[in-house]
Amino acid sequence: MPNKSLYLKHRPIQLDDIVGQKPVVATLKKASLNKEFSHAYLFAGMHGSGKTTIARILATLINCENVQKGVVCGKCRACRTIHEGSSIDVIEVDGASNRGIDHVKSLIDSSRWSPNELKKKIFLMDEVHMLSKEAISALLKTLEEPPEDVSFILCTTDIGKILPTILSRCQRFNFTKIQSKDIAQRLIDIAKKESIHIDNEACYSLAKMARGSMRDAIGYLEQIGTVAGGKTIAESHVVKYFGLADRLGVVNIVKSILSDNIPMLMDQINDMIMASVDSQEILCEISEIYRNIMLLKAQDGKSTLIDLPDHEIDELKKIGESLKMIQLVKLAHLFSDVDKKISFNINERWITEATLINCVASLRK
Fold it and tell me: CATH number of the domain that 128 lies in?
């Protein structure tokens, strides 16, 4: 499939191939083993967390002719057409662009007709929270009592906008952000298959930049792989190409703050900004370091809530030895509204420098 993006080319077709979302996978696999599928599902979570991918796998599990122990055969008509996106009985709808009542009514009318080639007709509705109130009202009755050979899979990135009446009619699954470690390992596997030469550290930087979105991370890998032209991609290349805050550089800024060395701090900030690193990116990475140190202290050194490699966690433990919990709480308040200050100020750099100098002053007290 040379013309497809890497994300589509390497999209999982089995539940066991899904990275992250273990509770969702376990529940759906058990439903497949017991052959007890619901008439309506609601998948909620951030973009790129696997909602549409798992929705397609679920549609395949429901229709596969030779499913065994939660594993689809991959050879029958249902498996082939659903994976290729060509099945006429799996209707995918984008709620953002088809949000009106007329479109939803036409879907409801089509649900009354029996499937053409599969056991069940599947309606996969993305961004369902963007449907109009009239469209939602029209959908409610069908969701409550759909035809026996019809199932609905609704997806949303904003669960707060979903009406309680919709929630009560669906089995709800919450999709969490995928850990950077898991995303990085997936990138390493894809890079090997695609002959993209990239360091493990560079994969982790791409994963961290994606902030929990597998789709974004694979997109970044494809982008920098194209630019590299067969050369080995190191972490420094990722940092330079995407204008990221170098992780080692951010740690050194934190050390300068703790050592009360404002002249060195200003030089370090200047180096990053001159390297085209966004001011908000710098502050975000620094605040993340302080948060991770706070979590380590709150959990007596345990790192279960921290999504970082082991060697970076050890480094944070050393940095945190000179900090007290009350100091970390004060630093949290300093960063709490800095994004608003930057958005309403004509000089982002000034706010960045002032915020970090304020950190030094706060630790002095």
Answer: 3.40.50.300
